[in-house]
């Protein structure tokens, strides 16, 4: 699909995978809200994705290098150690987790809509032939 539609669909697929992982981590935090000593976790990937795409697009074969850069992005799972904790040592903030869950769901929906739109355009173009 890369040759036909560039790197857009591959990038969208990778971002969807990463958002799915972020949602799972948030749900794990929510599930452990009452676990003594549990420290909340979060996933970051945007900075690495941006850096790798910028570096790849500066190369001699941007399309080829960008595809490899996108596929090599790995999420970073981080633990929140410095936030204020409750007496039981747990630092999960349910309000923040609910906001993160909703934001991730909206981002996921936007990415699905984007790839659906891209594929609809491709289908429309193919029907013209």
Automatic annotation (TrEMBL):
Keywords: Bacterial flagellum, Cell projection, Cilium, Flagellum. It holds the Pfam family Flg_bb_rod. It is found in: Bacterial flagellum basal body. It comes from the Bacteria. Residues 22-39 form the Flagellar basal body rod protein N-terminal domain. Structural component of flagellum, the bacterial motility apparatus. Part of the rod structure of flagellar basal body. PANTHER family: FLAGELLAR BASAL BODY ROD PROTEIN FLGB (PTHR30435:SF12), FLAGELLAR PROTEIN (PTHR30435). Belongs to the flagella basal body rod proteins family. The basal body constitutes a major portion of the flagellar organelle and consists of a number of rings mounted on a central rod. This is Flagellar basal body rod protein FlgB. The lineage of its organism: Bacteria, Bacillati, Bacillota, Clostridia, Lachnospirales. The gene is flgB.
């Amino acid at each position: 699909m890369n040759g036909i539609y560039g790197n857009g669909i591959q990038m969208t697929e990778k971002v969807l995978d990463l958002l799915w992982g972020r949602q799972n981590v948030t749900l794990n935090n929510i599930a452990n809200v009452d676990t003594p000593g549990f420290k909340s976790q979060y996933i970051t990937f945007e900075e690495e994705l941006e850096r790798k795409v910028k570096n790849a697009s500066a190369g001699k074969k941007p399309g080829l290098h960008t595809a490899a850069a996108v596929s090599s992005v790995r999420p970073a799972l981080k633990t929140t150690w410095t936030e204020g904790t409750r007496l039981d040592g747990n630092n999960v903030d349910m309000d923040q987790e609910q906001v993160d869950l909703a934001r991730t769901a909206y981002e996921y929906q936007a990415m699905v809509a984007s790839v659906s739109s891209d594929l609809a355009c491709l289908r429309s173009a193919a029907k013209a032939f």
